[in-house]
Structures are given as structure tokens and as C-alpha cells.
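Quick check before the chapter quiz. The format below is the same one you will see on the exam, so make sure you can read both the input and the output lines.
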Amino acid sequence: MNPLSFLLDEWQQRHLLTNEQRVQLETHERNRPVSLYLLLRSLLYAGILLFTSGVGVLIYNNIDTIGHTALIALLAVLTVGSFFYVYRTSVPFSRGLIENEAKFSDFALLIACTLFLILEGYVQWRYNVFGTRYGLATVLPAVLFLFCAYRFDHRGVLSMGLTAFASWVGITVAPMEVLSNNDFNDMRLIVTGVLLGILYIGAGVASERMDFKKHFSFTYLLLGGNVFFIGSLAGLFRSEGWAFGFALPIAAGCWLFVNHARRSQSFLFLLMAVVYGYIAFTYLLFEVMNEALWAFFGMFYVAASTGGVIWFFLNFKKLLKVRDEQQQRQR
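Here is the expected output.
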């Protein structure tokens, strides 16, 4: 028995539903249109992943038989062709959200950018065109992807561009010895991550305030917020004697994200502020507490934390509605 029939039976037994109403509900359920948007979009993304993975497997298995030059030429043709298709099917630039009738254009742009990365990596591996200038190898895709993201209004490519830009910043600031040894506790990387997160957050807030690609602000705030909080927490754990130098920025970031979450009615940003703020608060609390009290106080703190989690998930909608009600009163 399907869930709908079970519910209808229950309602009829309680005399909440007549036979005519039941027939109407069952007819509506059978005839109502079903959206295939998410399914088709997921299939297209899966197709992009399978296609680019297949290109990589093709290169790996046929390097000796096809030859490097032929494979590079094939990749170049596919990359240029994809970019050309995106350009031909694009609409004029706009400061706001662009609605393109050519729905496959978005996926073609993802394919083009992914193929560009494969082509760049292959050329670097085979001919070492960039040498040891790894910063140049990362800044080129960053500039290209950010340009394409704004020109063709694509949030996925914007994420790729911001990730490539972060890679370029990390390589530029930290010496290769730090990266090759996986020494991510290096304070230069930590401070750079915090500043980069602030830059992304500022770009997201500015895009909303200036009404310039306002819908990009979510991507900026999501990536920038995570980079900022993770970098600040790493600095908090790494610092000795001046932990509050990172605690204050974390508190300010939590305040900013809570306010933004209430303004935009976003559960995700509220959750980010609560989780990262809780981690920082817990660390500082046990850092200043006498170790002899850890075992005794820890049990109560875990119980209180469990209760706090339950309370948060039961009341987060009320937390978001407070700002919404204030805005309605101001209007």
C-alpha cells in the first residue's frame, strides 16, 4: 500500500474525508505533472563528470599509440569548440541574473573549463611549459574562469575560479617547502587563508550592496566563510598566548553570518555561524579551565551541548523569523 492510500484510509476511518473527496485527491495525485528538472540536471552533471573522466582515461591508455601531439590537439579542439559553442549561444552581458534559452550552454561551459584544466595539466606534464612557475599555472585558469563566470553568468565556474585563485594565493605566499611537506600549520598560510576569506566575504557583501551579480553573493559567502572560519580556527589552535587575536575575528564573523542568515532567511549560514562559533567557544573554554576540572565539567558540557543542538534544530526557524518580522515592521 502506498503512503497516500494509507493516509486516505486513516482520514476516512476518522470521518475526516468523504468518498468524493478521496476520489478527487487520488485523481489529482495521478494526473498532476511531475518535475523532471532536478533529475535531468543531475544526469547532465553526471554526464559531464563521466565525459571528462573518460577523456582522462583515454589519454592514459593511449599515450603510446596515439601520441602526445595528437592527444593535445584533440583536447585543444574540444576545448575551443566548447568555448565557441558557449559564445555562440550566449546572451548579452547583464548585471543581474541571465536567463539563457540554450539550457545546454551552462553545461558546455563546465565541460570547456574542465577540458582546459586537463589540457593545461597535460601540456605542463609533457612539455613543462610553465617550468617551476606554478603561480602562473594557477592564475591563468583563475582569470579565465572568473571572466567566464561573469560574462556567461555561471556560479559553478565562479566556484572553480575562486578555488583556482585561492591556489594561486597559497602558492604565491608560501614557499614550496611548506606545501611539499604538507605543513599547513605554517602561520603564513593561516593568515593568508583568513585574509582571503575576508576578501571573498567582502566581495559577496559588495555584490549585494552594489546590485552587481547579486546572486553570486551566496557562492562568495559560502566559500569565503568556510575559508575564513577554518583559517581562524587553525590560527586559534596554533597560537600560543595570543589566542584571542583569532577569537575576536571568529566572533565578528559569527555575528556577521547570523545577521546575514536572518536577513536572507538562510539556514546554511546560520548553521555555519553556530558550528564554527561552538568549536571556538569550546576550545577557549577548556583552554582557560584547569585540567583537573575537565573530567567533571566535561560530562555536563556534553549534556548541555546535546540539549543545545536539540533546541537549535527545534527553534532555528524562530531565530530566522525574528529578523524577517523586524524587516516587515520597518516596511
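If your answer matched, good. Residues 294-330 form the longest helix (37 residues).
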